[in-house]
Write a structure and sequence with these properties.
The structure is a single chain. The protein is mostly helical. Helix content is 63%, strand content 6%. Strands 1-2 form a two-stranded antiparallel ribbon. A hairpin with an 8-residue loop joins strand 1 and strand 2. The longest helix is centred in the last third of the chain and has 28 residues.
Length: 264
């Protein structure tokens, strides 16, 4: 039985040819395409700093876990080891859990919790711990289980899209869903249509998934911040800004708190 640290000890292998560009890196492009996680993670921590100070400093943990996902993804694709696979998948699981804990609107909590966020956070932590242990039982299905969580997230987003008339929020939701759809299409194509991509010598779809999903992260983060503000920060006005400039056709979204509007 191979060691969990051993190269190619994982049952999961992506379409990119192994050790084609380096004797130490199993999947060269799949490994180094994760560099975007280390760009957008710290940048979002900086850009969202005023919002985090006002809302919750736990928001920093989301960006930190996002970078951890990038780190473990690099390790996995570099080695294709069983340990790397589990670290990659478990870090994604905890990233999703942190987002749920901070931003899930209270109206979507299970009815037996009422609208008690501390109890909801406890439920999320317990569920995530159980899921972490279950991930060791059938590792080949972990990626599909993680992607299935997107169905629930899409449901929440769709409900909030119907509720709001905020053009900025609606735009962010639309862009986020489109980016995620393109990213998922790349992931599925690499997984199930590998023989076709090999015939035309195009092995980069999983790398494209990494780049697209890392771009989706800032949009999803700002989307949830705006949704959350409607419930948790009703006296604050949040304005969407884009880095490096609002006037540029492409930019990284973040929120700015521009003032209070308190009802007497």
């Amino acid at each position: 039985m191979p060691s969990i640290f051993a190269y190619q000890s994982s049952e999961v292998d992506w379409c990119e040819s192994n050790f084609q560009h380096s004797e130490q890196v199993a999947e060269f492009y799949n490994t180094f395409s994760n560099v975007t996680f280390f760009i957008f993670g710290p940048l979002m921590m900086f850009l969202m700093h005023p919002y985090a100070q006002k809302r919750s400093r736990y928001i920093y943990s989301v960006s930190v876990l996002f970078m951890v996902v990038g780190l473990f993804s690099m390790y996995f694709h570099m080695t294709l080891s069983f340990l790397g696979q589990l670290l990659d998948e478990i870090s994604i699981l905890w990233l999703l859990a942190s987002g749920y804990s901070i931003w899930m609107p209270r109206c979507y909590f299970p009815t037996f919790l009422g609208e008690n966020r501390p109890q909801f956070v406890c439920l999320v932590v317990v569920t995530t711990l159980v899921s972490t242990f279950l991930s060791f039982l059938k590792p080949t299905v972990n990626a599909y289980a993680l992607n299935s969580i997107a169905v629930h997230i899409l449901y929440i987003v769709f409900q909030e899209y119907k509720k709001t008339s905020n053009k900025e929020l609606r735009h962010l939701i639309e862009v986020s869903v489109v980016l995620w759809a393109f990213a998922l299409t790349s992931w599925i194509s690499d997984r199930f249509l590998c023989s076709f991509w090999q015939q035309i010598n195009f092995f980069y779809l999983h790398s494209i998934w990494h780049v697209l999903i890392s771009i989706t992260f800032p949009y999803g983060m700002v989307t949830m911040a705006l949704v959350d503000a409607r419930y948790e920060m009703p006296d604050q006005t949040l304005k969407v800004r884009y880095w490096p400039r609002d006037t540029w056709p492409v930019g990284l979204p973040y929120v700015e708190i521009i003032g209070d509007h308190k009802n007497c």
